[in-house]
Amino acid sequence: MNPHEALTEIATLLERERSSRYKSKAFRAAADAISSLSDEQLRDGAGLRRRKGIGESSFAVIQQALEGRTPDYLAELRERVGAPRESALRTLLRGDLHAHSEWSDGLTSIELMVDAARALGHEYLALTDHSPRLRVANGLTAERLRAQLKIVAGLSGEGFTLLSGIEVDILDHGELDQEPDLLDELDIVVASAHSKLRMERAPMTRRLVAAVSNPRVDVLGHVTGRLVEGSRGTRPPSVFDARAVFAACAANTVAVEINSRPERQDPPDDLIAIALAEGCLFSIDSDAHAPGQLSLLDYGAERAQRAGVPADRIVTTWPLDRVREWTARER
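Predicted structure:
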């Protein structure tokens, strides 16, 4: 087995199971460390051990791969993580409108996120790093976002498009945390609340309605902010008038995100039913913070299919030209 491929697959599987970011980054660093080495250099155990980025675990993986067998740790991860969950709806998804890179709180470069999206067969991926107020997530200032746009512009081609975007923070009264003119330059704007999630029902309703009524917003991200499992613990959902918020989404043709991260499962099933009844569009997104998390779309697709969401009302089943028509809509 190719040692570089083995190390990369281990990192990808660790990312999919949302393991410690340090573990996955260590295996990606090891893969980078050997990417330019010859077979002879790889078989020089003493020299390999001295190379920066190679630890005991990655060294063992390399040696076992060179022996022509599946490394033990990779075999263990494959069994533990399992194959992606299959659903008819998952096969219809063409892209993903919510993903992060190391420019904010993601784990890897934009280029690695693009490579992973291509490998999954995506036609498009929106890069939506955080906005400036979310300092804990290294949110992008206007200056940094403009610098990122120059990089994004050069990473499309051969049937794949990297869309420019942002996950913009919804401020206390529904304002958006980025310069309006800069938001106008982006392909996709995902608006999400990350602070004061325990706000009282009435002001939270006004906050979310104001945000989705802004003509720059395309997707309402993880609407309740809840956490139901995982290393960050649990968090109850925000409280708001769901019918009012989703009616505003429908009126402004803003898609309600079905966030695919298992620790979020957001919106809850009862809110998906309300959004359906109000005539909303939906966007099944990974909210990936690493390449291996892009495949989490299968969880979101499974939930949407179970909830009876029609495929044609899911914008991420649409071809890119239809997505662009939608984002250019009059509101």
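Summary: The mean pLDDT is 96.
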